[in-house]
Design goal:
The complex is a heterodimer of chains A (about 190) and B (about 350). Chain A has about 190 residues and is mainly α. Chain A is about 65% helix and about 5% strand. Chain A has eight helices and two strands. In chain A, strand 1 and strand 2 (about 105) form a beta hairpin. Chain A is globular and about 50 Å long. Chain B has a seven-stranded antiparallel beta sheet with strand order 5-6-7-11-10-9-8, sandwiched between helices. In chain B, strands 2-3-1-4 form a four-stranded antiparallel beta sheet. The longest helix of chain B is centred in the first third of the chain and has 35 residues, at about 35-70. The chains are: A mainly alpha (about 190), B alpha+beta (about 350).
Chain lengths: ~190, ~350
């Protein structure tokens, strides 16, 4: 999959260009944005809906957005906003209460067990921390760009990244250790 | 290595571990995404959304015009010799007033739902004929659209947003004697009938009918909430039938929307919701803030999109929010979120 390396665009950077075809844009960006939405919400389920709604927003005003220097920058902002809103709703609905952090490990509802390990670990982070981590590690956004995108200070982003990095790395390390132990146990059990 | 250096090295290792994890996530999620199916689905929804927005945009324009001059002027021409057109329409539903029946006795125009079927239209025509309605004209879609274009010739945005199928066709009963023989309550109850409008004011003195304000039973709004003229009854003005509904928890200052909020639904369409902020709800167009992603002017009106629908605002800033394709829980969440905006 194509790495997401396009620069973040502020209003002042929007440059008029010949409009690209929307369908081409959709095909090129949809999957990457679904990954981003999943990384921000911490759940695979719902990520496509978030991106689909955002693409629909772009489609409605494609005459304008299609001429931006980076239509993806616009859609990415909408995806992030929607994903954060989605996370707040999930929290409000009480579904997140099905999960709790116990001793640094996440106890997930049965419906979430199919998610990749990183998503499971991400759900232990606050939503904005997830967003900061996704922009920085998935989208290769700088601290300054991440701060601008989330509407917070660079200091806040650094705090999000520092805490998120340590918690996620710790959880992933535990998972890796568990996997290694399981593998060793399997190996020992075989004739 | 000092402590800072050790931490930095650890951070770098953690960062690398995370980059690998995110790349794995990309691979895993990408393998499950069907882009072409998503694109097809999006185009389907975009087409449906355009249809809904066009219809509502046209409805709002009609509502704005009706608020000023009455629907008979907007979509129906009064017959030559008729002195004055009504400046407010009769109440919907089976209820009637003296003023209503008196006006209709001088001739009437029966507007049909844009979705009315040929069979429904034939049934309505037959009922009118059976009532002895001589001088019956059917104003078809093309004629209605021509009228609409004449009236709004100076509003290209509106014309671009409106299509003939968005507008209600109608029967016109111009013979006063014939109109006086028609059973109007029965006529209004026929499937496919949108509303009935008098062609002329028939009474010297017209007492205020129930259409001036929503009925107490239907409204969730306390009597002391301020109202603005022209849109006192949203359900009357929008050419789609919106019925007022008491949303659980709404009204009385304790639920969503506060005491000066009214909620409406479209019968048979559980996915469409309307919330009307009639007073000091603390919500204004500007306070929608980030929720608004687009706005366009229309003769002093404006509208924009919120996540699950759109909002409409009259020139005074009072506005309504219309949602489609949402269930009640989602709608309550959206309205609740708007209310919380600073």
């Amino acid at each position: 999959m194509e790495a997401a390396t396009l620069p973040l665009l502020g209003r002042e950077n929007r440059v008029q260009h010949p409009t690209m075809e929307f369908d081409d844009f959709y095909r090129r960006e949809f999957t990457g944005l679904v990954v981003l939405a999943a990384a921000v919400t911490g759940e695979r389920q719902g990520a496509e809906d978030i991106v689909q709604e955002s693409m629909l927003d772009a489609h409605r005003r494609w005459d304008r957005i299609g001429s931006y220097d980076s239509p993806r920058g616009w859609v990415r902002r909408v995806v992030i906003q929607r994903a954060l809103k989605w996370s707040r709703r999930r929290l409000n609905e009480g579904r997140a209460a099905l999960r709790s952090v116990a001793g640094g490990r996440i106890v997930s509802g049965a419906e979430d067990r199919r998610d990749p390990d990183l998503l499971e670990a991400l759900r232990s982070l606050p939503a904005k921390q997830r967003a900061a981590m996704a922009l920085h590690y998935l989208e290769d956004a700088s601290v300054a760009d991440t701060a601008e995108m989330l509407g917070v200070s660079t200091g806040t982003v650094k705090t999000h990244l520092s805490r998120g990095r340590r918690q996620l790395a710790g959880l992933l390390r535990i998972d890796a250790d568990d996997a290694a132990e399981d593998g060793a146990a399997d190996g020992n059990g075989r004739p | 290595m000092d402590i800072d250096g050790s931490e930095s090295t650890m951070d770098e290792a953690d960062s690398e571990r995370l980059r690998v994890a995110y790349r794995d996530l990309q691979t895993q999620v990408a393998s499950t995404v069907d882009t072409e199916a998503g694109l097809d689905s999006m185009h389907d929804r975009a087409t449906a959304g355009r249809r809904a927005r066009r219809s509502i945009a046209a409805a709002v324009a009609v509502a704005a015009a009706v608020a000023v001059v009455g629907i008979a002027v907007v979509l129906g021409r009064s017959n030559a010799g008729d002195d004055v057109v009504a400046d407010h329409g009769p109440p919907r539903g089976a209820s009637t007033t003296i003023a209503d029946e008196c006006s209709l006795g001088r001739g009437a125009r029966i507007y049909l739902q844009p979705t009315a079927t040929d069979e429904q239209i034939a049934t309505i025509r037959a009922a009118l004929v059976a009532s002895g309605a001589h001088g019956l004209d059917y104003v078809d879609r093309a004629a209605t659209y021509r009228e609409f274009r004449d009236i709004f010739h100076d509003q290209p945005d509106l014309l671009a947003a409106s299509r003939p199928e968005d507008l209600p066709t109608s029967f016109r009963v111009s013979d006063p004697d014939a109109a006086g023989r028609i059973d109007w309550p029965a006529m209004r109850s026929l499937p496919g009938v949108l509303r009935v409008e008098p062609l002329a004011r028939g009474c010297a003195s017209m007492p205020a009918g129930p259409a001036a304000v929503p009925s107490a039973a239907a409204s969730t709004t306390p009597a002391d909430c301020p109202t603005r003229p022209g849109l006192a009854d949203l359900g009357k003005l929008l050419p789609t039938r919106f019925d007022p509904v008491p949303l659980p928890g709404a009204g009385g200052g304790s639920g969503i929307g506060g005491p000066c909020t009214r909620h409406w639904e479209v019968p048979g369409d559980p996915g469409t919701h309307v919330t009307e902020f009639v007073g000091d709800s603390g919500v204004t167009v500007s306070s929608l803030g980030g929720a608004v992603v687009e706005a366009a002017g229309l003769d002093g009106w404006s509208w924009g999109h919120v996540e699950d629908g759109l909002w409409l605002a009259d020139p005074s800033g009072r506005f309504v929010v219309v949602g489609y394709g949402v269930d009640e829980a989602e709608w309550r969440a959206l309205i609740g979120e708007l209310i919380k905006q600073p």
